[in-house]
Specification:
4 copies of one chain form a homotetramer. By secondary structure, the first copy, chain A, is an alpha/beta fold. The first copy, chain A, contains 14 helices and 14 strands. Chains B and C meet through β8, β9, β10, β11 and β14 of B and β8, β9, β10, β11 and β14 of C.
Chain lengths: 355, 355, 355, 355
């Protein structure tokens, strides 16, 4: 019997934070309950003795003793006193930029769910405008970061001290395209189109005009056209350039789930079997990707699971394809993938605690 | 050919305001375009030259020249210069308390959509805690107010200088109960139950945790149990006491519409026909109430109309009934009823501009 | 280590069937995979070699080897050959009436999710019009049936050979009212109102005009007023008469979840604590009921759990109360409660496999 | 004052039929009430004395005397007796193929909402597999058909005896692409992508597994990939080939509305103004197209209007664009466009009765 370990998480008040808390509370290999830190709750709430996790997320009430957990004011000393080994950050990227170097310094391994450390190229980081970009410490930290997509970087994640957990849209699109690009099937001269649609939880918990029920319901809208922050990630990970893809996010009137419809043209005609074979080979040993044989994935099939579902259809000539990639933006697109990375870092089965 | 008149409205940025603007722009008896005033838009927005109505409400773009309308800073002088005769206020009740006395003083007729002037009894007004309650001016103004429900006060509205436009829930429940209570059918000793459900537009346009899509969608919740502000209105207008009714609002995962399910017990057994007769007689000459013969009203039938739909079903013994009352909270529950009142004040057909 | 046992289920193609299959596949005390039987799939589908469970319910694809399960044509011989001890029926009530006597005869223990055996009184059964009502075999079978609500009949369920699993609405209303009626708090002369609202999965999987998206979405409607089939159950289990309650179901535009708003008047004034105490005492030892202290239950908190959530609010005088009862119609209202009953029948912890 | 004319419509029971009935009842230039014919209602319903229009569509109850209209059994004699001049067919395409030749023969002008007569090329018609394709009568009828998109064929529609009203998806995509293709801006070698999303009313009124609330809600799915029936229309009208475009429909969890996201690459770099200029010129004199300057169209802005909303965004280099095209599938995508065509045929203002 291997020993269990102690984790902690910062930023529990958002939607991804709630899912992560739930997963950590149930994970069979983790020790007791993780201390949880607000990250966004007003300081005044925390002054008054701390609120409980289930006050913030009533739906967690039945989860393995969640009722007893209080939101703690963040403290490096508490982490140290509890012997925390792995720290999850579900914090805004500015906060992750600030804290991660110190966490590493203190010997913690970090899984960061923000966009703070995902991008190797300065050009791509420009969209985040990090105040510290260019400092030596930032460069040294970035150098240690491993992009936390197990299907691409399984071995490096296992040994990583800092895992940059991928964005939800990026996960959906990278998993669909990387195998085909790596195999050299796609004719990039014609450009790829990734038309992506996400449920409202992707827009975050703070109430805004865009997350108002009256705006989101019975509607569909585009946003961040040619400018979404996940663009850099998917370019770097797929290994293509800015001009090779048009990626457009849409806001769907559903609570959660992403469906990306991806259009590609092949260098030469393919068959259903030749394409399926490329996917099968690439995802051999990847328990959290489901390849669809006949039907196409739908949001309803992957939502509330940690699976990425991938299917495709060729045109009659075999030279063009529509690829469909579905996942739950809060699980495989955030908290679930973070736990998948945790499992790799601990040498556990990749899908442990994710069924 | 009767002359047309000039109106104006304050508080155009909310959902009821948008509906009212649309109705006024299309009303055949009104002169040109009404000047519209923000009421809630930040002062800084207005400083910058004024924003257009269609920037705030893009769905109004096709409405009869709405594109040309700018949101004006409020000004008594402008009202006067334009010869405005009727002023609509879709403002918070505090603002209506402040402005209505001056408007009346200046000779304007006012239709106020807030709860400021609906309540005759001080006990019922307590829920609003008006700073000026108790002043002579407030009392004198209140004395002029007519509760703007045409089906109850048609004649008085016609001559009114101040119409207090009813609340949405109150309209739904009063129309269902007043005829039966007035006819002496209901045994009040057993208590009436009014279980009311409203779409999210009833919660207003400012983004809040409760109007977040993630809260409202796939959910149902109660609020203001035993304490909703519309309670006083319905007691006064139906003519019953606090103990005679339990009224509970619910937040429905739909954009608009109210359905109230009302439970009553009769003093003696009724037949379908005896109850239907009471309703028919009461609503004779009321073009905006539809009585249902066989099926029961549903939200989908009254939404986007100015109709109040009423139906009912008796139990086998005829001593108990379930009454169903549906309307669109933004139309018959707000802007539509306001225009119905305007029509009465101008001696126009009651449903003009409301088809 | 206690031995695991073999179960089987008939009627897997509906929504409750899918949930039951999922729960059985994951239950730690059950042997391997249960054989599953269609119950409603067209005979011609089954002729063609049998379809797989995951073709009918793709969302089950990741569940513990569900992929390998085929829908079998029903066969007593197969049940016998596999050593099935407990048989779940998620079949129409007519089919349950026909099969249960034979199942008992063959020594199987049965948990029937239909309304076939829930009702002790012939008057209440009239709504189902069973062809065999009145036969000796039916009477003898009915005499063995235990109403499968653990919170009321825990001991009898443990030893039962036939458990009649409760209806979803009935569960919601009985749990809210039974403690107060049993404690003699409620003044029945004034009548109870149970205004209940259910998501669309409660209307079943076959496409009908009422389950069409265009009918259910953006709408709210009543159905089965004064005539819903669950009325008999709740009268018998609460121990009240037809005239003591008005129960009205509504169709909510959400996939799943029930919220019942229940209105009662007390014989004498109560306090929050006196009522809470009655509930706490009644539900002591009931792990699947959550009592709410401050806030009221909402559908979003109980959906996708097996909990029944109960909360209430008194009026200022303490003589009237609004009680709110929420549950997931497919879990605590159907498949989850069935597994809760299974656990009792096997002497297992009541909430096993339901977390 | 020009004389008013008499119309009639067949196929009133569907969603587009209801909208068409509503528009015809309110149209200021039409005579009295149009006779309406079921088209799909069971013969047995009609036997029993005829059902009323408002029984089939209760939401039409307030529309200008709709209450008095009965669904008639179809009869050429009745059309003749009433002096019907224009016949609308909202019937299945097979029925339109059968009836249109006779209608023309009898001197009626026809606006057919089905796909029966939209396609000039036999290859494109293959998807419908008309039994009569290849007959002389069919060829002669087809030769008279004008594709009913006023923005493309205004003059020919004015004189047409048979107008083939466009498909909803096709309208959305043609209006977005035709101006740019006609102006020679688009580099077709790279292929166009049209990722289109439609509300559930597009799937028709008969209940099916796909229109079940439980399937459509909280979901997104693709259908008819590389094979949707509207493909032929958009190829013929835009003037491109099968290989020049990938068009994929999605089923949105909303009642109505289409949003098409269209990706193009230009032959040479464009500016916002150069593209906007092409659109402005093309749509000069087209009152039912709204061009967006800054923001992009959203479904909520065009739904329940007859407008087609078009906006676009260029990438930084000006060589690629995302075009967004929104409309209401039942109005500009069906019944509204049909009335627009009627107006042209009668020499009336194109937007009459459509505000």
């Amino acid at each position: 019997m291997t020993k269990t370990i102690q984790t902690a998480m910062v930023g529990v008040t958002g939607y991804a934070g709630a899912e992560l808390a739930r997963l950590l509370l149930h994970h069979p290999h983790l020790k007791g309950k993780p201390p949880v830190f607000a990250g966004r709750v007003d300081a005044k709430d925390l002054e008054h003795g701390g609120i409980s996790l289930t006050e913030v997320h009533p739906q967690l009430a039945d989860n393995n003793g969640a009722a007893g957990l209080k939101l703690e004011p963040f403290s490096w000393e508490l982490l140290s006193a509890l012997g925390v080994e792995v720290l999850f950050l579900a914090t805004p990227h500015e906060q992750s930029r600030e804290w991660v170097p110190e966490a590493l310094e203190r010997g913690l391994r970090v899984i960061d769910l923000s966009g703070a450390w995902r991008l190797a190229e300065a050009d791509h980081r420009a969209v985040y405008a990090f105040a510290d970009d260019g400092t030596e410490l930032a460069a040294a930290t970035q150098a240690q970061a491993v992009y936390g997509m197990p299907e691409l970087h399984r071995e490096r994640i296992a040994g990583a001290r800092l895992v940059a957990n991928p964005g939800c849209y990026a996960t959906s699109i990278i998993l669909a395209l990387k195998p085909l690009v790596a195999a050299g099937l796609i004719d990039l001269r014609h450009g790829i189109v990734a038309d992506a649609k996400s449920g409202v939880s992707g827009a975050g918990k703070p109430p805004t005009p865009r997350t108002h029920y009256m705006y989101a319901a019975d509607n569909l809208s585009l946003y961040s056209v040619f400018s979404h922050r996940h663009t850099g990630e998917l370019l770097e990970q797929i290994g293509i350039g800015q001009c090779d893809i048009m990626f457009t996010p849409h806001l769907l009137p559903i609570p959660r789930g992403i469906l990306s419809t991806i259009y590609v043209q092949f260098k030469k005609a393919q068959t259903r079997e030749s394409v399926a074979g490329v996917y099968r080979e690439f995802f051999a040993g990847s328990p959290m990707v489901r390849l669809y044989d006949k039907a196409l994935p739908q949001i309803q099939y992957s939502v509330r699971t940690n699976y990425a579902d991938i299917g495709f259809q060729l045109d009659a000539g075999g030279t063009r394809a529509v690829i469909v990639s579905c996942l739950d933006n809060l699980l495989k697109g955030a908290a679930g993938q973070a736990v998948q990375n945790l499992n790799l870092m601990l040498g556990r089965p990749e899908s442990e605690g994710l069924a």
